[in-house]
Amino acid sequence: MSAAEKPAIDLPLADPHDNLPQPHAQTATGFHRFLEVACTFLFPFALLVTCWPVGTTLYNQELLWLGAIMMPLAWLASDAFTGTIHWMFDTYWSEDTPILGKNFVQPFREHHVAPKNITLHDIPSTVGNSCILGMMLQPVLLLWAFLAPDSVVSALAIIFISLTFFGAALTNLFHKWSHADDNPGIVRALQASGLILGPKHHKIHHTPPFDTYYCITCGWMNPVLAKLRYFRALERVLGWVGIQPNIER
Ligand SMILES: [Zn+2]
Ligand SMILES: [Zn+2]
């Protein structure tokens, strides 16, 4: 090709992100799928079985109101906790990292390329892995409840940890709903009330430079953590010990 025929600008090859992957439901198979389904059903019962004796302890001592205070605190804690996990997998490691890469980094990174994929996951695929972890945690908390039957501090701690993990287990469901177009009225009402993550709120995370509003339970902690520059502070601290982000913003 002569110089005259050459295009004035060398056009880059098509960005691979122009071709978004087709939405697909990432369901586990075999024994993993069985565990996801079984634990999705069992975890709420395990939570009730754990909270019943400690709730009785508080009731007997006329301190049930203290247990009620744990609810919003646990909601805040689960928002901050899941936000930190989300930031971690959005920011560090790669899809090739052993164990973590395929199971955690890849779904988080894919979510930014094809955000609607999450809406195709069924309930066990959405919350199952969290419920499996919950089914490991609840027996430990139940044992704690039986070892300290009259302790108010233990009762409050057990309720707080249980509800924090309950919020964390539901986070992926709230996140899925924030991307869905056809939510039932009750979900839209919960989103509008701010009790769970709303689509407008979460859109801030999906807006360049994609480095804020990681919290996805209710989002209450997002403006607080953004104001505190919490995630940048964590990145600086990790940078001091030689751990650098693995993304381009
Ligand atoms: Zn993200
Ligand atoms: Zn999202």
Description:
The chain has helices at 30-60, 64-91, 100-113, 123-147, 152-179, 185-193, 199-203, 221-228, 230-240. It has one domain (32-240). The chain is mainly alpha-helical and 249 residues long. The chain is globular. It contains 9 helices and no strands. The structure holds zinc ion (ZN) (2 copies). One zinc ion (ZN) binds at residues 111, 115, 175, 179, 202, 206. One zinc ion binds next to helix 5.
Give the count of helical stretches: 9
* Helix/strand class: mainly alpha
Which residues sit in consecutive blocks of at least 5 with pLDDT less than 50?
A: 1-23
Number of domains: 1
Give the helix level as a range of percent. 55-70%
Q: Compute the gyration radius: what is it?
A: 22 Å
N- and C-termini, Cα separation: 37 Å
| Ligands (ions, cofactors included) | zinc ion
Mean pLDDT, all residues: 89
Biggest β-sheet, characterized?
none
Overall 3D shape:
globular
Overall strand count: 0
Order of helices and strands: HHHHHHHHH
Strand content: under 5%
Describe the secondary-structure layout:
Layout: H1 30-60, H2 64-91, H3 100-113, H4 123-147, H5 152-179, H6 185-193, H7 199-203, H8 221-228, H9 230-240
Helix pairs in contact: 1-2, 1-4, 1-5, 2-5, 4-5
The structure holds zinc ion (2 copies).
Question: How would you sum up this structure in a few lines?
Answer:
The protein has nine helices and no strands. The chain is an all-alpha fold.
